[in-house]
Amino acid sequence: IFVELEEVVDGLIHISDLSWSKKIKHPAEFTKIGDKIDVVVLEVDADNRRLSLGHKQLEENPRDVYESLFGVGTVHQGTVANVNDKGATVILPYDVEGFCPMRHLEKEDKSKAKQGDVLDFKVIEFSKDNKKIIVSHTRVHQDNIDAERVKSESEEAKKERATKKTDKKIN
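-> structure tokens emitted (171 positions)
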């Protein structure tokens, strides 16, 4: 976006400096000609009389907060927004987008999640620098199955120990 600050000074806001969270493909998605927006000066090029400006820098980077909220291993309810051949975009709390690879879309009944499904998703990767959150629905129910197996194995082990103690006492 080209910004005229005064008659003799021009500034430019790169499209990547408009918003932390929205993927903007064209400035018209964010603002229109004649709109007034607040900006910060990111860089001054005195030789060419140009300023690099930013709008998103007026706010704290939400990814700093997301890093603690969406840590690896945390589980969140999400809505499958769209599905393609590689996986699905999942809308998590606070309108945060995550990506779920196709192999992680399998439900407990072996069917695949589809657009509009509201499911629990486990964060399996978080990269603040690459602005990506990878989630898995499959891991949620696999973890539940694993927990049940561990529980039943520990119950069986307790019974076995009790049986051995009883046998020892009898002997």
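Strands lie at 2-4, 10-13, 40-45, 50-54, 75-83, 87-92, 96-101, 118-127, 132-136.
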